[in-house]
């Protein structure tokens, strides 16, 4: 096997038995026509392009972590006392946030629509390049023990809160749900977009 | 041998028209000053109308800078518009 380094007009190439295995251009960018394998972790602060080199192909963020959901009333927030199991986690891939929540505790002195805040990331704006569908991001709710009607799913409001919503049938969109003071136990999961 | 759990605010991002302040806290364990295991993240978002009295002085200063009266007023208008869009 022969390895050779050859200068080009604007950089250099590394060849193996006469075939280029690595190219360095004038800007120092490195490319290879072969498969790149790493058994260790790789760091890509600027992201990585998958399937093309357009902006839409750039995966520029990945993160896992936790968040703390808080139940409150829309008109009067009230006092939320979480239990030890209250919490949630998220996984963010690019602009997509996958969210899980386990909201357990007691709410007192609250009034108005039943809502949950504490989201780990701000929700995307409703229009423009992010799409109006973001306005209707929904979260699947396992159940909400504590409110008096069967509400599902949640909707993610552009103002960064979740609110419970009923669904009735194909001709009605249902309605929002008022908070009921007392013990609360809610489980939910779903996704929404960030800017 | 001393195990120590540490937490600090490691990232603050200002995003969107209403200058939402996204805060990320990182938590890790040290044994005699050496990192044990990985680090974990916890996040929350501060909105223009949020109470920040429980936030750190650093975060409160950032919020005071970006959540100007103009931003708060604009956000309040936005909230009112949202309310009319949510069916009761």
Largest sheet of chain A: 10 strands, antiparallel
**How far apart are the first and last residues' alpha carbons of chain B, in Å?**
58 Å
Based on secondary structure, the structural category of chain A is mainly beta
Count of DSSP H/I helices of chain A: 0
Structural class of chain B: alpha+beta
> Helicity level of chain A, as a percent range?
under 10%
Roughly what is the average pLDDT of chain B, rounded to an integer? 91
Q: Uncertain regions of chain B: pLDDT < 50 for 5+ in a row?
A: none
How is the secondary structure organized here?
The complex is a heterodimer of chains A (195) and B (88).
Chain A lengths: L2 E5 L4 E5 L2 E6 L5 E2 L16 E2 L8 E2 L2 E6 L2 E4 L5 E4 L4 E7 L2 E13 L5 E4 L20 E8 L8 E4 L3 E4 L17 E12 L2
Antiparallel strand pairs in A: 1-2, 2-3, 3-4, 5-6, 7-10, 8-12, 9-11, 10-11, 11-16, 12-15, 13-14, 13-16, 14-15
Chain B lengths: L2 E13 L4 E12 L2 E13 L10 H10 L2 H17 L3
Antiparallel strand pairs in B: 1-2, 2-3
Describe this protein's structure:
The complex is a heterodimer of chains A (195) and B (88). Chain A is an all-beta fold. Chain A has strands at residues 3-7, 12-16, 19-24, 30-31, 48-49, 58-59, 62-67, 70-73, 79-82, 87-93, 96-108, 114-117, 138-145, 154-157, 161-164, 182-193. In chain A, the strands form three sheets. In chain A, strands 7, 8, 9, 10, 11, 12, 13, 14, 15 and 16 form a ten-stranded antiparallel β-sheet that branches. A four-stranded antiparallel β-sheet of chain A has the order 1-2-3-4, with no helix packed on it. In chain A, a hairpin with a 3-residue loop joins strand 14 (154-157) and strand 15 (161-164). Chain A starts with a strand and ends with a strand. In chain A, 28% of the residues are buried. Chain B has helices at residues 57-66, 69-85, and strands at residues 3-15, 20-31, 34-46. Chain B starts with a strand and ends with a helix. Classes of the chains: A mainly beta (195), B alpha+beta (88). The interface between A and B is medium-sized, with 24 and 19 residues. Strand 7 of chain A pairs parallel with strand 3 of chain B, so a sheet runs across the interface.
